[in-house]
Amino acid sequence: MARYGGIDLGGTKIQAVVVDEAHEVLGSSRLPTPTTGGPADVTLAMIESINVALEDAGVPRSELVAVGVGSPGVVDDAAGTVTSARNLPDWEGTYPLGEKLGAAFDAPIALSNDVNVATQAEFDLGAAKPFRSILGVFWGTGVGGGLILDGKLWEGRGGAGEIGHMVVKKGGAQCPCGRIGCMEAYAGRKAMETEARRRHDKGEKTVLFKLMKERGRDRLTAGIWDRALKHGDKLAQEIVDRAYGALGAGVASAVNLLDVEAVVIGGGVGIKLGETARDRLAEEMQPHLFNDDRPPAVLMAELGDLGGAIGAALLVARA
Ligand SMILES: [Zn+2]
User: What's the predicted TM-score (pTM) here?
Assistant: First the structure.
């Protein structure tokens, strides 16, 4: 039997699935992304993620015929390389990820942009199935965007969809990308954490870092933000509200340009905050929409947390 692997390489976690020819998920896994080391350490964790997913599926390694990978950074599938994956540890240069994984699994490897594969998965199998033109917004460590226009993935010259770096405030906050005023500078999980630390260090009260310690984490995960909000944490609420404001402005601006039928919200933070995130995004977009009498549908990513990994498997299981 032919089985396919899919790996979603994220800044916080690595998720993997093993699927059959009908794209049914047989097994999955989730490991934290190493925060230290470099590409070689991340690659080892990726190999482990597939091994755990195979075990979960009860599928022997010999049935794995190919593995697809959705990765951040600049992805060159033909060369099998990933360059400048900045949300990953020490991954500034070019790394032969395809070759390393191919050797480990003795199978062909396909690489693509993480957000594009997740958008494609929602378009093919998930929430966006009824539509022809969609914008995927993946709210996680950063904020990624994927575009399908008239049924086709729009990659531009290879770098399209960087919605996180739409400028929502001239002269605004510093973005993890080094530029100023990007949407991600307000809404990315990493930037939200930086802001929470800054305010906490100045003496503001919050349960965020206490929760982080209790749960043995070294960063403010989506789950910690969610729990702090449920605790009624004022600082967490203010930072999340600021994120919604930035997302609303940025996503509405993209919709004004492209007039897509639907916006699908996913990503680690988006999925965790769930329907609240979807409703707040729609609400925050409304004042910025030029065609405000016919807003696009705003939908939750239906494939949930595993959408990226399923989309990665689609790279090799599509035929
Ligand atoms: Zn930026």
Answer: 0.90
